[in-house]
UniProtKB/TrEMBL annotation:
It holds the Pfam family MerR_1. Keywords: Coiled coil, DNA-binding, Transcription, Transcription regulation. It comes from the Bacteria. Residues 155-164 have a biased composition (Basic residues). This is MerR family transcriptional regulator. Residues 83-110 form a coiled coil. The keyword Coiled coil applies. The keyword DNA-binding applies. PANTHER family: HEAVY METAL-DEPENDENT TRANSCRIPTIONAL REGULATOR HI_0293-RELATED, REDOX-CYCLING DRUG-SENSING TRANSCRIPTIONAL ACTIVATOR SOXR. Residues 1-69 form the HTH merR-type domain. Residues 139-164 are annotated as: Disordered. Transmembrane segments: none annotated. It comes from Comamonas terrae. Residues 144-154 have a biased composition (Low complexity).
């Protein structure tokens, strides 16, 4: 089949197919007498595997290792081990994302709980102190004296807090 038909059957752009061929993920197509590429039916399966692999989070280099020269050369145990590792990686990312989401939702709730009579700067300090960020700065190992720049920032913060 020619590259146009392959693109139609896989839903990939012809430029993407040429790219995969150029980097060695797809076997080079044989050239017809007129110079057009001619792909075997197996190319559809390989390109679909590449697309599924990328959606699952595999890098192109990881896919290069997974896809042998021919589908008949796949090493069953090695393939399953690699897929299991990727599933564990995804589960780890999901747990990390769930934790991050939980922290952000809590932060939003803290910000939204601003009393009506409180200005934004005071609310920011309230929220940050509730997160322990203010304590971490106050408990640093080396005591610091206020520099001119630091004193200026604090003065500006007080002035902006006083604004309505």
């Amino acid at each position: 089949m020619n590259i146009g038909e392959l693109a139609q059957r896989t839903g990939l752009a012809t430029s993407r197919i040429r790219f995969y061929e150029r980097i060695g993920l797809l076997k080079p197509a044989q050239r017809q007498a007129n110079g057009y590429r001619s792909y075997p039916d197996e190319a559809v399966l390989v390109l679909r595997l590449i697309a599924v692999g990328q959606r699952a989070g595999f890098s192109l280099d990881e896919l290069r290792v997974l896809l042998p020269d021919g589908l008949s050369r796949w090493e069953h145990d090695s393939l399953l081990d690699t897929l299991r590792r990727k599933v564990r990686d995804i589960e780890s990312m999901q747990a990390q994302l769930a934790q991050s989401k939980s922290e952000l939702v809590e932060l939003m709730a803290q910000i939204e709980a601003k009393p009506d009579d409180m200005d934004c700067a005071t609310n920011a300090r309230r929220v940050l102190s509730g997160l322990g960020l203010a304590q971490a700065d106050a408990t640093s190992a080396v005591p610091r004296s206020r520099s001119g720049a630091e004193a200026g920032r604090q003065g500006r913060a007080r002035r902006s807090a006083a604004r309505p």
